[in-house]
Amino acid sequence: MSELVWNEPESIPQVALGTEELYWIAVDSGWTGKIHVFLAHYQNRPYDPDDEVAAQEDWVLVDQDGGYIGSVGWVREKEHDEFNDFYSLIRFSDYYRLLGWAEYTPPEFKGVSDRRLPHRGPSMRKEVPIYTDNEMDRYGNKSLLQGSCAGVFVGLVIGFALFG
After folding, report:
1. Which residues of 85-115 are buried (b: 16+ CB within 10 A; e: fewer)?
2. Exposed (0-12), middle (13-18) or buried (19+): which is 141, by Cβ within 10 Å?
3. Which residues are CB-neighbours of 99 under 8 A, at least 6 positions away?
4. pTM over the 0.70 mark
5. pLDDT tens readout for residues 54-64
6. Tens digits of per-residue pLDDT, 92-135?
7. Residue 94 CB partners (closer than 8 Å, separation 6+)
8. Helix (H) or strand (E) holding 72
């Protein structure tokens, strides 16, 4: 992996309108007394409520109540039950200062290659069949349903025996 080139905190990443890009950021936390380095998005999704055309753009964000909002700046992506992409503004202050940001390039995965799933074509959103009894799928795997239930049953029996 190549050496990171850190940019000054006052500089702004060049992010296309209506998108966000992932970067490394370094933050000095007065609460922990440490420098934290983590991934964050720089978002360029402004919204002007007086601009009727802007509200029709497909990249305009909505808040939890369904209202349009704008977001230009550093955000963290978080898990949410109701939204695919949920972002939280990173609030910098005298006790939480941005020290710099750097380009993020995901590393190439060179891990355990023999455990990869078989390629299913352009879309991974295919229904996974549940085989029952002693059926086997096309890869020679026994019943997913039977194996899963058996594992849960054995786990419950062992748990009950150990912990009463």
Report:
1. eebeebeeeeeeebebbbeeeeeeeeeeeee
2. exposed
3. 9, 26, 27, 28, 35
4. no
5. 667 778 887 87
6. 999 999 999 999 998 887 776 656 666 666 654 444 444 444 44
7. 30
8. strand 71-78
